[in-house]
Amino acid sequence: MPKPTRSTVLVSALALTLGALTAQHSTAAPTAETLAVDFSQTTGDFRGGASGTLYGLSDDGVPSQAVLNGAHVTNTSQKPPDGAQHPNGDVLNVEKSFFAGAGKDLLVYVPDMYPDWPYNKGRRPGDANNDGVWDYLPIIRQVAEKIATTSTHPKDIVFVPFNEPEGPWYPVGDWAYQKDIFLADWSAAYRTIQDVYAEHGLGHAKIGGPGWYAWHQQPSADLLSYAKAHNELPDLFIWHELGTNNLATFRGNYAQYEALLANLDLPQIPVNITEFGMLRDMGTPGQLVQWMSMFEDKKVDAETAYWNYSGNLSDNSSRNNGGNGGWWMFKWYGDLAGTKTVKVTPPRLNAVDTLQGMAAVDSVNKKATVLFGGGSQDVNLDLTGLDRIGSTVDVTVRADRLNGAEGAALQPPVVLSTRVAVSNGHVQLTVPNNDRYSAYQVQITPALAARQPVSTDLVSSVEAENTALTNATVYYEDPTREWNFMASNSRDVGSFNQAGSGATWPVTVPHAGSYRLSILAGTNGVPGKHALFVDGVFSKYVDYSAGLHWTYRGTTDVPLTLTAGAHTLSIRGSADGTTKLPGLDIVLDRFDLYDNTSGENAVYPAAEARLAGGAQLSYAQAGTAGYAALGGPATATVYAAAAATGYYDITAHFVTTKAHRQLKLLVNGRPVALPKVAAPGAWAATARVYLPQGINELTVSAPPGDLLLGDVTTSRGAAQLAAEADPANVHRAEAESLTLAGTAAVESLPAATGSNGSADADGVVHDVVNVGKGAANTITMARPAGFGAGEYQLVFGASNADKSDPINYNPQVISRFLDVTEAGGSTVRGAFRHNYSWNSFWDKTIPLTLTTRAGALTFGNPTGPAPHLDTVTLARFVAGSTLTPDS
Predict the structure, then answer these.
(1) Can you give the residue ranges of the CBM6 domain (predicted)?
(2) Which of 6, 193, 230, 854 could pair covalently with 483 via S-S, beta carbons 3.0-4.6 A apart?
(3) What domains, with CATH codes, occur in the chain?
(4) What is the pLDDT of residue 15?
(5) The pTM is what?
(6) Can 734 be counted among the known catalytic residues?
(7) Of 166, 232, 241, 275, which is the active-site residue?
(8) Which helix (H) or strand (E) holds 722?
(9) Is 477 among the catalytic positions?
(10) SS3 content of the chain, % helix, strand, coil (to 5)
(11) pLDDT over threshold 70, residue 414
């Protein structure tokens, strides 16, 4: 990857106005752009290869399995075993989680054995000891040998012996001279890898290359011709499409590549664009959909570039277990697996930062999908070929907006839900849109028994720059600057660093009740605080966790209780108007107010689930149209987002014609028992489950027989909070109150640090440090009475700001690990992602199966340092279940 030159990278989110969206059959307004989709013209099997990521995985468990599976990552490039380029991302450490999901090709960047960038001080290795052996070959052999003898999937590993070789090692400007050197080196590298695999009886080793940093026609032709003659063709042809302009030039580059194959009489060699996109594209749905549409159109694999740190899908996931706006774009894209893509005509093809899209049809389930975004005008969807779906169709549109790299995005809201008559296979809809950073998912099915309503919980969305500001400055974040992250509405508010700094705005709420204020903001490597005032009166403090830098934004949620009608909300840098709050210099981007009076509720329809094992949507009866037929190996999987760590009621709504039927539920791979029905009919089976904050994989199946699943819902309100408050369900402890051994010690973080940890009455946070780096350095928690053998969740409030020494421009962050040992039982290990500051704490949930009646739990790490621990919570995984008739 070419080294960026920048002083500050700007991160932000987009603005989205969720108005009332209407379907119409007339021609769209002149301001609309038309995206035409012809579902009768299929363009091939959906490939799904544009969900790749460079160094998107850092360790086993980072990212979490649910996040990885939901993003449907099919390919990734990682460092070789013992590689020095980065402190994590080792291919052997991530292959377990990668292949447990959608993983197909696991690429290894062999030159990442070198610690520096450009590699080897920017010079091609020579023969330093004059032994007649090219100095790079022993390195290649070491990598191939380690993978051949240690990997559990050696035949699925793709060796990439060169990364951007035309830059430092073989300057393309001098290709006439460099060509022969490179081609000879290609042979040497290729044969070395194949020899190692042959020695171990593994057959052919997959090799990818050349790995150009940009498309080069003549060097590519030279390599392909030479490799054909020497029987050394790459299994994947690799180059990079990084700059913004590649949104306009890629198709032309790919056409040249296909022409080379034809001219050389070569078979189709799959392409992997192992690095694509710039900082501004990462985590931004409206940008990602442009890249993904382009790559899917040409059926190539592609990987988001690695600009920050490993383990978060290239800035497309958040925190320990969350999904940001970019993650939902990956998820929507992965949902198309098993479909056929169809012809899409955007207003302008190969035009940078414009409306683009992709579409697919699932003939088995009679479902059509369109994904689009990137424009800033209303979108007229001109849909043809829908006669294969039905004469009347239901259309559901969800909106996915950017909410920062560390933004905790819940299920994207429904912004349009309508039933439309199909005329000669044709439907025309207008989706109001003024946000180039948003992406939209359109799903079209036959008439459903239960069409999803338009979401109404967002009652106010206000840009920070549109509030009444004091002692603060509005900044323009130019979206054309490639090294920027996007800002909501391309503007944000900074220099918020005085006691008198404030942002004030009006809101009107529909009724008295509970609300959730979600603040999109960025902190500069440290946690911080603001004061929230309601109607001019101090209400509470806002605790922000640390971020990578001011513009690497995240969301902070604040609960509010409001009366019906008009109110004034204000974020201020001081509670008393004089004393500055710690870490108050925070960049503010957007304020979203959600109605939370009825709790946090989400519906995941079977029509939107990932179906496998023969599961199929049924439209035979109007009352169950769009339900999924389950039985035997058939499964329906949804990815449910939880705003908080705690109890949620997970309810499966289903219909069965037989008695004594029992659905099977897996929550993040763990079985949860649901009640068995005694009679035929419509039922709602509920389990109260302690979920980790973020993304949760919920899979429903059933024994063979007649059963239809309508949806899976999650809910969290007063009843679930009461279950958390019950000490028979949940035991909470401050880490410093437990038994410490060895070097484990209590640390005090004064209020001046701005820590968001669990504070005492004086505002001081106490955490435990120096755990690990030896078997004796531990914390032990006695099991509370009644917490016997069974299934639990163990939740830590933890911090990890560990880094290795700077090597190159990437932040060299390090995951830390914590072992949990049950006395008389087993040990499980949890991975804790870097979270920017030792004073900033995130929840990390570790699944725990206890096998003894009362064996104590000991936390440590004999081989390395553990994270700092603030709080420890032991919760019953399941706190009851119910079965009720479903009306």
Answers:
(1) 460-594
(2) 6
(3) 47-335 (3.20.20.80), 458-595 (2.60.120.260), 600-723 (2.60.120.260), 730-877 (2.60.120.260)
(4) 29
(5) 0.95
(6) no
(7) 275
(8) helix 718-725
(9) no
(10) 20, 40, 45
(11) yes
